[in-house]
Batch of 2 targets.
Target 1
Amino acid sequence: MNKITHLFATALFLLLSFTACKTTKPTTEPSTQENVVKDTIVSAEKPEVKEEIPGEDNPVSIKEKINPPLNIEEFRAAWIATVANINWPSKSGLSTYQQQQEALKLLDFLKSHNFNAVIFQVRPQADALYQSELEPWSYFLTGEQGKAPDPYYDPLDFWIKEAHKRGLELHVWLNPYRAHHTTGGKVTSTSIIRKKPELAVELANGMWWLDPAQKETQDHSAAVVMDIVNRYDIDGVHFDDYFYPYDSYNNGKDFPDEKTFMAYQNADGKLSKADWRRDHVNKFIKRIYEEIKAEKPFVKFGLSPFGIWRPGYPESVSGYDQYDKLYADAKLWLNEGWIDYFTPQLYWQINQYAQSFPELLGWWESENTKNRHLWPGINVGLGGDEKNVDETINQIMITRGMLPESKGTVHWSIGPLVKHENLARALVEGPYRKKALVPPSPWLDDSAPEVPEFSFKVENDRLLMNWEVSDPKDISRYVIWFKYEQGNWDYKILDGNVTSFSLQNVVGEKKKMMERIGITAVDRLGNQSDFKEIILKK
């Protein structure tokens, strides 16, 4: 059985399993520090005792092992679109206070529903939702291109700080070539269309596009990316599917870059126009990846291309040809490892034969030769009825089953999640009922942090824990592990600035005592320290 067949068979088995029962209601209640988790996971065999230390009236023995008792890694993100005020702000020209309150509501939603990342659009049309000397303030923010918020604040800085407070990574989402959107208001003198007219071309639908083949276009867009990387404490940079524009934007006519291509031919260029266009996009993607890594290796670079590479790949798939129409060779970028995470927009349903979600996911995984993160984008905007809720849950579970080494899903977009209460509830009561860590990226850094120095005592029937590490600035999270008598392992994910925590020492009507505890430290790239388990002797 080849890899794609095996992956599809796995997906089909999972689909049948999950659709045979209700997915919107969990079989157990979400665990808290007072409840015993009900997961049927058996902890691994423990190595022999290494040392013994006394607790307060509680002798303990310490055992060591490398891996913690559970795999709790999964990327859970949502796109927040600012173009056309799709998600934020709800309309242009809101006051600073209104913008910030809307932002906090969205971030609070993600935190309370156990997401761990947000993909926030900061450059929808060669503009900026942050303080920039390279591009003007966005129309979608203030209602006038080039106008700063009043009272002044930096939205990106605000989003980053508030996201990090809530344990969320923040990835900046940029459109590298779009210069003006049809909903983007009046083109002002601050626009690149006016400042560098030789770079921009107008399309039939009223959009403007920067010519990707011009060196100055590439230099400018790269400078915008690196300006953000250098000045802001971001966790990732993200591009979507807009490279050369969709042909429908120009009424089916070819992209108007005749002058640029003619100059290339006159300089003895040998590539066809299509290969020449793809070559410029390929070089730009590789350049962005390399420049980010040279400056801040921990900043991840992600791409969310159109979900189909070419019709016929895999065989049963038909649809739009991004390779031929957008001049985006997304398969090459994945094959070469020019990204840290790859998020194809698989916005189709599981049983949609010509664009089947699991079949496309399996094909992309077969092309993931560098073992980068493959976190598909899914469409949660199909409505809030039971059928569409089940579709969302099943796609998440299929992704987990097919990609167990690095689970993850990106939701398009946050709007339907907030709008449809039953969908949001199904997530937090189902696959997202517990928090998760962002999976590590070992090709960037596989050096785990040190094991925290740990102490505890029992006080008023609670277990009080304290810990420290020698270099706390490198720690982004801690995980408290605990286990009650006759129960299974449970955990709490805490912020990296927390150095103490308490748990109830006895729970339930049967007075189950705390039996085992431990702690691991997690660095910014998701590397988790060795697990030191403390067995509480009776």
Note: The radius of gyration is 25 Å.
Target 2
Amino acid sequence: MQQRRLAARPGRFRLSALALAIAAAPVGAVEENVVALEHIEVVGQAASIDAALNDQRDSDSVQSTVHADGVAQLPDENVAEAAQRLPGVSIERDQNEGRFVSVRGLGPDLNSVTINGTLVPAPESGRRAVALDVLPAELVQSLSVVKTLTPDMDANSLGGTIEVESLSAFDHDGLFYTLSSEASHDENTGENSPKFSGAISQRFSLGDGIDNFGVAAAYSWSDRDFGSDNVETGGDWDFEDGPRLEGAELRDYEISRERTGFGLNFDYRPDDYSSYYLRTLYSRYADSETRNAAGVEFADPLAPGGSGEAEGWRELKDRTEIQTIRSYVLGGERLLGPWTLKGQVGYSRSSENSRGLGSAVFESDEEFEDAGFTSRAKPHLNIGSGFFSADGFSFDEAEMARERTTDTERNLKLDLARDYELSGHAAQVKFGGKLSRRDKDNDTDIWTYEDLDEYGLSDAQLAMSGYTSGTVHYGLGNFGPGLSASRIRALLGGLDRDDFYDEEESRVNDYDMKEDIDAAYLMHSLDIGDLRIIAGMRYERTRFEARGSGIRDGDFESIDERNTYDHWLPGLHLRYRLGENTQVRAAITNSVVRPTFGQLAPGFVIDGDEASFGNPNLSPLESRNFDLGIEHYLGRAGVVSAFLFYKDIDNFAYNTDLAGSGVWADFSEANTYANGDRADLWGLELAWSQKFDWLPAPWNGLLVGGNLTFTHSEASISSRDPDSGRKRHRDIDLPNQSKRVGNLMLGWEDDRLSLRLSLNYKSDYLQEVAGIDDEDHDLYVDDQTFVDFSARYSLTPNLQLSFEAQNLTDEHYYVYSGHRSFNAQYEEYGPTYKVGLTLVNF
């Protein structure tokens, strides 16, 4: 068989940039050049969608993709918000910024994230999910969500694997660079924020080669100041005699988030049969949050409109979290006749450093008379004016905290494939293996300050009036004075902090967990006419170890738990072309998703008849997945598709109370995590995109797209009745699973102007399960619909002006307890507006 050559990567982004420049030229110049006219047809939104659909069409898996120019055209702050536009994808938001990605309605911890082919570990101490808001969108060349895994892929995702690819010099021809500046305005706080980004790439000639060595770099920096207004109960409702409310609090957030991202990539292609690369990425995310809270606790639970005595309190939280991700990937590919050898070494390290004032609480000296509230969904306090004054509040307690989490992933991967003919049909056998070593540790230090009068501080020194910082600007009503972080720190700084070190809380949260995975696979591909078959088997062996400390009635105990398990994971993929533009896909795959690190944490606290603890012996979630779908491509930027999927799930993890059973028979509380019996999830994913370029002007610039995913799940949980000892069951939805997720996009573009209106919808979902017989206190996140708008105008062939508006409908965040009428949390953000300028040169 003749030796093949490595296929050159198409310069899709370069084509879009070139088209943008030509589109801005005078009309007469375009008419004189037929080639230029062709480039104009692929400019902007349609070009990026078309490039992404080509990747989707050729993929062996069911996947959805967005390209770098597509990311830049959406009103998105980060990678997570860019991903939410894809079919079947939604996001979890924090302070109205997208953070974690959900796929097909499944929770973020059931997905995995890779950067340039290597797994990204999670900065946060208890999660596997990677908060993708730490990755600025400017560092990404392409973003794909793979929903069916082939045997040569890691099997550690149930919803999908989010694959991030960074910039390469071989994505462009010759010198390319782009510079952008942006200013945003937060309507809620009135704050203005800057952002700068840029990218550059160039190819060089080494040795006898021509343009065979490439260097690409990208940089992004932003510092966003914004805030939100909140009222919440935490689900603190008494439903036995009510419903009646036990307490509520008002919260005002002032937030600053600084993001810095940098990527430097090298590619070397010495000949037509080999290529080598080094991918590096660094991202730093600093989140500074000041939260003032004012709350009440009613002496007796109250109904709306009722009144009674209440205690009041004020609280300040002022902390900074810094998350970093470092990723280095060295790899290459070599053609050896009919054989293709690929190798890759990856190293990724994520960390989170958090420190600051965890809380400072001032309590009212006397109870407030005739206190009450109106509205169960958005409680409004009816209380005396003294509650909104600093007078009458005194210092109660404070907590200073420092926490460092690191999560390190090292892996080595080798793949070997051989192309050959089988009975006259093109075939390939591929096999390989991967060694993965992961180490996650957490170190916490907590200082608890209380009973300060024993340290010689007078009542006047502990009065709240000496620690205020002016009136809080609270958009949901009256709030009164806020607390000053600097003044409280000065108070605590005058004390010997060693006297207040909380050894119990510090040690019980410390842990070191190791997870080693050895994997091997064998797969075979066969093309029989229009049918492509991929069949194979993957084997994964996991060795897990968790070390930490527990405390039993004041005494510390060391913990060292180990667990080993293996999985055989067969897979079958079929793709059949019904015609030039239509194909059918089917897949049967298997997944294994390990529990979160918070669920596996070894620490425990046992105090009398109450206990709380992690469960290092949890079994991993196992799932058999079935996918069937059809895709029909409608020309440039056009597709209509429908996919059915079903997942048969065992061993999903959930929180439970084991009190009354086994060794916990005499306990009133024993809160931990357990494996559920089983769960089923099935759904339908629909997508449509089309550019109406055959219509007469100006309608030929119209671009419409939409997708909608329906899912339904059935899961069963169980626990022992503490009185009878009998096992109790309850059917629930899978936590974090939305039944409906959808996007709608209406766009229009011509040679200079590009407009896009985007709508993103996510239905309500179960956030947290309460006791097995306490459905009323299950927490649900309400449905949300976000509307965004973007406009871009080419001032010159190389200069573009942009305007973006986020959350035009001022959508809020609402969590309810059991029924939509009962508040657990309500939060408002307001719209954000951005204006930017981008220079492109190539």
Note: Residues 228 and 829 are 5 Å apart (CA to CA).
